[in-house]
Amino acid sequence: MKAVILAGGSGTRLYPVTISINKHFLPIYNKPMIYYPLSLVMLLGIKDVMFIVNPEDLDSFKKLFNDGSQLGMNFHYKIQSKPNGLAEGLILAEDFIKDDNVFYLLGDNVFFGHDLPKVLKEAKEDVEKNGGAYVFGYYVKDPERFGVIEFDEIGNVLSIEEKPKKPKSNYAAVGMYFYDKKAVDYAKSVKPSERGELEITSVNEMYLKDKKLKVKLLGRGFAWFDAGTHDSFLEAGEFVATIEKRTGLMIGCIEEIAYNNGWISKEHLLKLAQPLKKTEYGKYLLSLVKDHERS
């Protein structure tokens, strides 16, 4: 399986902050926003990643990540000339995805949960084994802002609707999706919505029509932040800060995950930590090596 992270867009909901900087570089507490979705990809053991980016941000992404080799990964980039909708990212990544399955994520979504890696791994394995699509639902107070999932009394998915004026439930489809190789063809057949965008919900509706859509609800043990608004951006940062201060462990630390996955050596981790040694982030990376040596 490969991963595609949608990291373009104009970030208008965060204006004026994002007039001069891509929102995915903004800090969620102590690390760039884009680290959080990337960390989920890494936790699943996926090494091949494509970032869909704005033309003016390509150099900045390459400066931050280069080709991914410093993490033992393979990074690719594709330019999205203008934000034409979430489904367009699948079309742009066609040559990268080819005949593979894909983990598709939004670059401004932050997730946390003790069993989250387990839940994602089960979804990944289900799509790899059985095909289809796997999406996740989360209870929200303002479902009209999201793609809304409707269920029957025994939990079967009846409909999934993009930003409905009269939502049929309070369950929003969050910004991460597992798709089989049909996803690109489905995305190509999507027609622009009333907003003029290629909606990812339309892709999910096609899987639902084919009886190939599965939904997993993320309950009280999980946190989800669509960090594309000022309030949710602030809430995400405060949440991450609270968890990290109380546990002493970092959320979304990509160097730590690469090290734990065996993708980089102890020596390489020390090399990555060296320029950051005066920061708490750098000190944390150095502590990982010390803790490993003690054990």
TrEMBL record:
Function statement: Catalyzes the formation of dTDP-glucose, from dTTP and glucose 1-phosphate, as well as its pyrophosphorolysis.
Q: Which reaction does it catalyse?
A: dTTP + alpha-D-glucose 1-phosphate + H(+) = dTDP-alpha-D-glucose + diphosphate
Which residues fall in a coiled-coil region? none
Q: Transmembrane stretches, by residue range?
A: none
Q: What is this protein called?
A: Glucose-1-phosphate thymidylyltransferase
Gene assigned in the entry: rfbA
Keyword Magnesium in the entry? The reply is yes
GO molecular function terms noted in the UniProt entry: glucose-1-phosphate thymidylyltransferase activity; metal ion binding
Cofactor(s) needed for function: Mg(2+)
Give the similarity note.
Answer: Belongs to the glucose-1-phosphate thymidylyltransferase family.
Q: What is its EC number?
A: 2.7.7.24
Record key words, sorted: Magnesium, Metal-binding, Nucleotidyltransferase, Transferase
Q: Where is the Nucleotidyl transferase domain?
A: 2-241
Q: Which InterPro entries match?
A: G1P_thy_trans_s, NTP_transferase_dom, Nucleotide-diphossugar_trans
Xref: Pfam families:
NTP_transferase
